């Protein structure tokens, strides 16, 4: 029992030393922009988390890049364009509608239609 308590205590206290990014902004508007941008961009490593929530080293680098670009006065669109040019449309949760992303937009509907069609065919065949 003592060993379990000791291990639990060690894990708890080690988690208290987790690194956290601290950024100092000149205005609350910049801080709001940072929070909005990091929550709207996808982590390339985790893929199901945004940059703000991810603990991956790449996400930390992306947060740092966004912070630096906000400090230099870039607009939100300029920051997003820079990241899309560097990492592609995959970094966006809502990719633009173009020839390269047409599958992302229509494939779910095609699969849904195919599944419903097969279900109807299967039911009619059983009757």
Structural overview:
This protein folds into 2 domains: 2-96, Cytochrome C biogenesis protein (Helicase, Ruva Protein, domain 3, Orthogonal Bundle); 100-127. Helices cover 63% and strands 0% of the residues. The protein has 5 helices and no strands. The chain has helices at 2-16, 28-40, 57-71, 76-87, 102-126. The mean pLDDT is 86.
**Secondary-structure element sequence?**
HHHHH
What CATH architecture of the largest domain would you give? Orthogonal Bundle
- End-to-end separation in angstroms reads 63 Å
Beta-strand content bin = under 5%
- CATH C-level name of the largest domain: Mainly Alpha
Radius of gyration, CA atoms, in whole angstroms: 22 Å
CATH T-level topology of the largest domain: Helicase, Ruva Protein, domain 3
* Tally of domains: 2
Structural class: mainly alpha
Number of helices: 5
**Number of beta strands:** 0
Give a brief description.
This protein has 127 residues and is mostly helical. The protein contains five helices and no strands.
Task: Output the keywords.
127 residues, mainly alpha, Helicase, Ruva Protein, domain 3, 63% helix, flat
Layout of helices and strands:
Elements: H1 2-16, H2 28-40, H3 57-71, H4 76-87, H5 102-126
Helix pairs in contact: 2-3
